Amino acid sequence: MGIFDFFKSSEKKEKEKEKETAGSGNNNAAKNAQIRRQIYDIANNESEMMESGNYSDDFTEISYYDDFGKEFKMPKKDWLEKKLYPSIRKNWNNMDGLYPIIQDAFSKGVYTEVKEAVLRFYAADENFERKMILLGTYHTKTGAYQNALELYEKNLNIDNITEGLCIAYAEVLELCGKVPEAERKYYDALEINPNSATAFKKYFDIVKRRNVKEYESKLEKLSEISGNWRAKMMRAMVFFKKGDKESGNFFLINALKESGYNSEVMYITSSIYILNELYDEFKQYVLAYYNPEKHNAYTALNVLKYYKVRNLYKEGLELCKFTSKFPWIEHYKKFMYYEDYFWKMKVNSESLNNDESASNHFFSTNKPIWYYEFNHPEFMLNQSRRVKPNVLILTFTSIGEKSELAENLAVSLPLYLNENLHYKTNLNYQLAVAYNKESLFVSKKRYSIDYMKLIRQQNNNLNFVLAGNILKMPNVEKYEIEIYLYDTFNEQKSTLVNKIYDENNIYSVQNDLLKAVSTFFERDFSIKYERNLHNLILFSPKLKFLIQSKIHKEHQSWRYKKLLSDQIDIVLEDRNNDLKKINLLALLYEIKQTNSQLLKFQKPIIYSMNIHGIFETQTLKILAPIIFKIYDDDVNFQANIEALNITDSNYLSWINRFSEE
């Protein structure tokens, strides 16, 4: 029995919907009396009104994250009862545990519901600054400004004042309209820490609103004090805005030195130099001190801009690869742009793949594409004998308005169908995907009848050609999708799908396709209905990697980074789908071959998924040891292999390939 058989036996039914509960009893008068009593209680209890808010607020959705960092949402009322209150009870005597829970509630706009926790924290916490600011924030966010003022007035003195307390006090004063007093408090914070970002901004915002000349005068005085790098940085910006680059540069250089070339000043300085095309200064004062381990993503992007201007593609590719190990996934599009740009420079400069006349080739398969980079595990395939009809699946065409999504779906839909037909049917089919050099080819024209006849002439045993057209409609996010079967003997076309989809329901095309194929070929296979495009649109980039050279893959770090992040999310949102998990394991192994720097950041979540049993299904448990081999964890790898005690020669031969490399 191969792993394919496990897919059939391990498919799980959809979880049952939670049953709605309702109060029992047929006495309408009693019900009405109860409702009237509830309304009376709320209307006559001011405290309860403040605590409860309005009824609709109970159904406001609250975001929260599970153990894997996956975002979920639930009604506020449920979140309070199932998440917030149990966490508070659990940490009632642990102030270090209670503090982030209250802070998280504040970040979600939840204040009155944590009143008791706030008061408990204030009474028990030994960190004076922390508990004062927390209670002051609670009073401020609930509109009790006077209570916040009294809290700070009664408790703050010269011996316990801190930068944070000065700022918190000043913010309340400002809310109460006491701007002069707030200004003095912000200045007090600057005297404690002249480089405080919050105090500096809020103090000078007040001054600047009053008088621009006063703002520049006070900024000048502060910038003359040694160590006040923030004032020097801000004064430099003033000079650059006025066009005085020489004076601006003087203060930037001093700000860099006094800050120890910290992340913020390096970012501001690099941005100003790039904006003003001061590339020599950039090289001398930024690049000479740049450290990607120390400085942020914005500085890295500015360095890449500099490399682009200077045509330094080798340095650009190297930096792109190195920075891909950092948790900067929100910037992936910008880094991918530079990776592509520098790779094209490398190709042109080193005459790589310069055969302009290269013709199209075809990648042909009836196996899932993860198989090819996962050491060819034959035992994981459907070994059933394939039977007629004989079907050729082509990539779809992308016609109409140019669309990245349409071009993706033109490749991803056939690949998605391929994976499902492989495991769920014994249909004799073959998928052919056209590519040119290292790029997938998607036709911009519909396939002609003559083209279908040509295909038939080259294969007399062919019964059907499955193809389709994806037409992006102009100026709207709508797609007219036609998927059809061409009968090569009768020269007739049968429509499987012909529908207009919008951005809200286009995900359902994959479900419609499987249903239509199942019906046409009378293959009654189970269909796992997808609720979004997340999984589908990953097929195309996976195939792109498959046809690329190893050296190109090595410089696709950010595309791999995004693909891995998306694949992890897909597994976490559909934890009963074994095929998606196999795709994740295969991708991890593929990444290890060319971009192993990406693995470290994702190691905690991958190990956590394993600990929580996500890979404990009958199918996945025999693959899970590969996780430890990928992470060079030989102790856990050997322990898992011994615990499985598998003697099948095909499996052992495959698993040994990971040790041979």
Helix content: 55-70%
Structural class: alpha/beta
Would you count the extended β strands for me?
10
Shape: globular
User: What is the helix tally?
Assistant: 30
CATH domain fold name of the domain at 358-534: Rossmann fold
Strand content: 5-15%
Q: Major β-sheet, in short?
A: 8 strands, mixed
CATH architecture of the domain at 358-534: 3-Layer(aba) Sandwich
Keywords:
30 helices; two-stranded antiparallel sheet; alpha/beta; disordered N terminus; Rossmann fold; 661 residues
Explain what you see:
The protein is of the alpha/beta class and 661 residues long. Among the domains are: 30-59, no CATH class; 358-534, Rossmann fold; 549-661, no CATH class. 56% of the residues lie in helices and 10% in strands. It contains 30 helices and ten strands. The strands form two sheets. Strands 3, 4, 5, 6, 7, 8, 9 and 10 form an eight-stranded mixed beta sheet that branches. A two-stranded antiparallel sheet has the order 1-2. A hairpin with a 5-residue loop joins strand 1 (61-65) and strand 2. Helix 12 (212-223) crosses helix 13 (229-241) and helix 18 runs antiparallel to helix 19. The radius of gyration is 32 Å and the shape is globular. 31% of the residues are buried.
